[in-house]
Write a structure and sequence with these properties.
eight-stranded mixed β-sheet; binds guanosine-5'-diphosphate; binds magnesium ion
Length: 345
């Protein structure tokens, strides 16, 4: 059926006719109308039509380009928008796809036409991420038990600074007999930095000259209730270093190994680091430098992929202030709003 725009028939628009066929709009040269006086040119309407066509063209390019970045174009618009935001914050695409599928199931949405509303979708996403992220606040398991904590991770991640913060919070403040052990014998300044922290905190300090001599020190210090062990960072290609440290810890199941990684690294870089550091069998993650980024999807996505709980977050250089014990509400506030410092203010 052919229907004219507004009038139910063809309408003369100067040299053009506009006809609406079913739902499509087409524009083309107007047929000659014998006996009719040529209508005056309606240029503003013609210009409006061209502008409309060009806007539709622009929007369709934009939608195609947005869709090509999304895990699936079959999701409802609110989910697609949320997916774009998660990806922009650093979450890997595959994980975003998994989150969306979980949210669809949670909200009972089966088709892209289903309606859910932005707020409901946001809450669904937060709930899913909260259930996928694991936290294990601070070091140590059973309350009142002996704690032996080792920090491992790449050089410059913030291990020594974080160790001093932990020593203050879980050693000095708890008044439990504690000791700080450094195994960073590669760089003289590194051990001295920790010795200085130990002196300020009033805690005993000992240096293991080699990874092998750590065993002897751990036996010597077996009566201490809290033992903090700092380690040097292995370079990415130094496989010998990783093997040496895995051997050093293998005979000491009492050591709780926390992997310290910078929150500023991208998801892919963290996964690459994980392939090496997982050899040491860490049981918890600490993320540092969280104050230096507002993109928290990369490291949170990594924590989900690695399947390890987050124990602490470091958000600055100050010892001992700039350390927060991880909690799910804190992670959600960081992800959906602000930095660790602001999120906890
Ligand atoms: N901005 C910021 N700087 C940090 C943080 N943690 C450590 N640093 C700084 O990063 C640098 C390396 O830290 P360090 O503890 O020596 O790293 P390590 O090589 O892993 O022992 C030092 O200048 C620290 O003060 C943090 O959470 N935020
Ligand atoms: Mg260090």
């Amino acid at each position: 059926m052919e229907a004219g725009l507004n009038t139910g028939g063809n309408r003369q628009l100067g040299p053009y006719a506009v006809t609406v066929e079913s739902e499509s709009i087409s524009a083309g040269p107007a047929p000659e109308a014998p006996g009719l006086v040529q209508a005056p040119r309606l240029e503003p309407e013609q210009a409006g039509l061209e502008a409309l066509q060009s806007e539709i063209g622009r929007l369709s390019v934009l939608v195609r380009s947005l869709a090509s970045h999304l895990p699936s174009f079959s999701y409802m618009p609110e989910l697609q928008m949320a997916a774009a935001q998660l990806e922009a914050s650093g979450f890997p695409q595959a994980l975003v796809g998994e989150v969306l599928e979980r949210v669809e199931r949670r909200l009972g949405l089966r088709q892209s036409q289903d309606q859910a509303g932005e707020v409901r979708v946001r809450r669904g996403i937060a709930a899913e991420l909260e259930s996928m992220l694991a936290v294990s606040p601070g070091p140590g398991g059973a309350a009142g038990g002996r704690r032996v904590i080792a920090l491992v991770g790449p050089p410059g991640a913030g291990k020594t600074t974080t160790l001093a913060k932990l020593a203050m919070r879980y050693g000095v403040s708890s008044r439990a007999p504690s000791v700080i052990l450094s195994t960073d014998c590669y760089r003289v300044a590194a051990a001295e930095q920790l010795r200085a922290y130990a002196a300020i905190l009033g805690l005993p300090f000992a240096l293991a000259e080699t990874p092998g001599s750590l065993s002897r020190l751990l036996v010597e210090q077996r009566h201490k209730e809290v033992v903090f062990i700092d380690t040097p960072g292995c370079g990415p290609n130094d496989q010998d270093c990783f093997e040496e440290w895995s051997r050093a810890f293998a005979g000491h199941p009492e050591v709780e190994i926390h992997l310290v990684l910078p929150a500023t690294a991208r998801y892919e870089d963290l996964m690459r680091a994980w392939r090496r550091w997982s050899q040491l069998q860490p049981v918890k993650l600490i993320f540092t430098h969280t104050d230096e980024t507002t993109f928290h999807g990369g490291w949170m996505g990594f924590a989900i992929s690695a399947g390890l709980p987050i124990s602490c977050l470091s958000f600055g250089q100050r010892v001992p202030e700039d350390l927060e014990v991880a909690s799910k509400p804190l992670l959600m506030r960081m992800l959906f709003g602000s930095t660790a410092r602001a999120a906890n203010a």
